[in-house]
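Weekly structure sync, notes
Attendees: PL (lead), two postdocs, one rotation student
Agenda item 3: pending single-chain targets
PL asked that the sequence for the first pending target be pasted directly into the notes so everyone works from the same version. It is reproduced below exactly as submitted, 607 residues in total.
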Amino acid sequence: MKKILFRLHRQGIVKSVEAWQKRGGERAIIIILAFIIGALAACAAAVLHTLVSKLDQLGLFISSIQIENSRPWYWIALTALIPLAGLLISFIIQKTLGGRLYAKSLSPLILALYRRRNSIPFRDCFTHLLSSGFAVGFGGSAGLEAPSVLTGAAIGSNTSALLGIDRKQRNLLIGCGAAGAISGIFSSPIGGVLFAVEVLLPEFSVSSLVPMLISSATAMVVSRLITSGHSPLMFANDQVWVDNAIPFYFLLAIYCAFIGVYVIRTASVLGAKLKSKLPNAKHRVFIAGVILCLILFIFPTLRGQGYAVIEMLFRGDTQSLCRTSAILQFIPAPVLLGVILTAGLLLKVIASVLTVEGGGDGGIFAPSMVIGAFSGFTFARLINLLGWVQLSEANFVVAGMCGVFTAVMKAPLTGIFLIAEVTGGYRLLVPLMIVSAASWFISRMIEPYSIYRKPLAESHLMVDDKDQAMLKRIPVRLAVNTGFQTLSIDDTAAKINTLLQDVGKRENIYPVLDRDGRFCGIVRLEKILTAMLDPVFSSTLVAYDLMETPRGVLSTDDDLAWAVENMERHDMKDLPVVNRHGRFVGFVSYNTIFRKYRNLVRETESF
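Predicted structure, written out during the meeting:
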């Protein structure tokens, strides 16, 4: 059966696509696929949000059940432990359907695209929907954007693989899926494209924007048709900004930059601590889940994605915000408001990390926007209470979302246009530009990497230098010259002299191997010729005597950036390469590396 399906795929689908490409060109099929991928990504995002909405209603129904003749703590325990149930279900889905290398963050996807590895398992087209749906639907504090982006990327990768699209174009189609996912969630076509460009894709050209724009626009239309124009975060801001508020937008940007750095470092440190202190995943689910349930029970404003809280802050409805924490109603209202705002600033990221690392699934995208809304509101409310000037709290909520999002994601253009489109207009475009640019600049001075790239940079898997970044994508094994004459460690001068007779095959260096074929060192041609000037002396020599200790030996698993660094360090133009068993494979030279680099530059330009 598998052979029949494979033959049908090769002879039917792939050949039809190849015929279409010959007739209409490669760009024509990419444009068509951009429409298809955008529509599928929007459908996936709509399914996920519908699932979360239904599960949220189920959780509210369960928590409202009154057990006859029961004590109050029964209801408290039932209400508090619903998020733990979501984590357990999500954990089971990941273990049964997700596979061994299940990714909850965009970091693995960014690394894969960075290394031009664009094959994503088909199961990723649906596992993230189920896993994050239960985790967030039952109250887990995380966003749905990262799972949606991973799903859209999987749709783009598998659609292009099914149709036999060249691997060089798959990164572009993965970007189309990611852009479509963001656009479908927020009805933000420009924000979706900019997110794919700034956060995901390692490089792009102007021509590559066209398919992503098509995919993003298609996703927005399909999403509006499915949801009847409803977006999880869409509110109209009809307030204009005033000139005397400009200095305070700069101050807000500084505040948001420090909050963004706090989010990045807290997420990084807490996630690492959980994994090191609780290496057993089952123990981590239970312990992190119980802590999460306690936090969410005390501060319900931290539950779920948090978009309802953003709308409360935008309207300035502090009474509804205070009423959400039923257990804290004994605290006076002004103090309770301060406690809730502080919890939103400091504990939202902790709850998000506990949700994701505790066995659930989700992203930091929505939490960063919620923290930004808290930041903008607290800043404006504090300035208004001081009486210096009266600021529009709604405007600063919007600007705070942009500032913290930019500081966390290191994506200033995405922050500007995503928030501008979500608020239904561009009235605050100038303040958003100020806050986004200043927040990005200040946060980069303190923490140069985004929340997704920080773990990759700390593991030395990614670099900012473009030349090194390109060379890091090419493994050494793809640039090895294998046509070298080898010497045995016991070879005599006479045998070596025989090799030198054939001038056409004469090399500048010769690798020396032991009896098991393992690499021992190199012999240089000038050293051999010098020894041959004295026939009596040379007759007593073997290859071991002429060999010099190898420097900068490379492994087949190294990359060309490491090869260049070793060449410069040891002042060598050729470096030996061995496999993981220590056996000689060949040499890597400067000329070969330069040719590989040039080819990659051409591929990038065509991409």
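Discussion points:
- The beta strands are 487-488, 509-513, 519-524, 554-555, 574-578, 584-589.
- The longest strand covers residues 519-524.
Action: rotation student to compare against the earlier draft before next sync.
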